[in-house]
Please model this.
Amino acid sequence: MRVLIEVLHIVIGLCAAILIGALASWSYPLAADDIWLVTYVALAAVAVMGIGPLRRAYAADRAKLDAEAGGKDG
Model:
């Protein structure tokens, strides 16, 4: 469940960056290329920053599942 929440956070962050980039390039079309370049860098940053929390969430979910499986076998 934690993994799903972290993935949703990453997706929301990516959507927000795209929305901001689209609105910025619409409002100032002369700099659209530069705005999209910065947007792509922001998208990469959001994805990279989401890797750590995603790995921790996966480890926590895996530990919980392993503990539940161990309790049922014993």
Observations:
- The two ends are 25 Å apart (CA to CA).
